[in-house]
């Protein structure tokens, strides 16, 4: 289902729900909770923020494993162990 179809479906259903004030109140509370979760979720980020952070990470130091080197060997060589 496309975003346009979902949007139309939501509005159609809201029109039906709007006739019952108690049901409309429940939906409003639920929507506030969903929006709050989206705002509070530290893993949610915009596409622009994602690519900005990716670009920043690429500017940092990089390390490569040598041929036939194990992860333990590399960490020892870099002074982490």
Summarize the structure in words.
With 81 residues, this protein is mainly α. It has four helices and no strands. It has helices spanning 3-17, 21-40, 47-59, 71-77. The longest helix is centred in the middle third of the chain and has 20 residues, at 21-40. The protein is elongated, with a radius of gyration of 25 Å.
Question: How large is the radius of gyration?
Answer: 25 Å
Helical content band: 55-70%
Number of helical runs? 4
Tell me, briefly, the overall form.
elongated
If you average the pLDDT, what whole number results? Answer: 89
Strand content: under 5%
The biggest beta sheet is recorded as:
none
Q: Based on DSSP secondary structure assignment, what is the total number of beta strands?
A: 0
Uncertain residue segments: none
Which class of secondary structure composition applies to the elements? mainly alpha
Order of helices and strands: HHHH
How far apart, in Å, are the first and last alpha carbons?
52 Å
Please identify the oligomeric state: single chain
Q: Secondary structure elements and their pairing?
A:
Elements: H1 3-17, H2 21-40, H3 47-59, H4 71-77
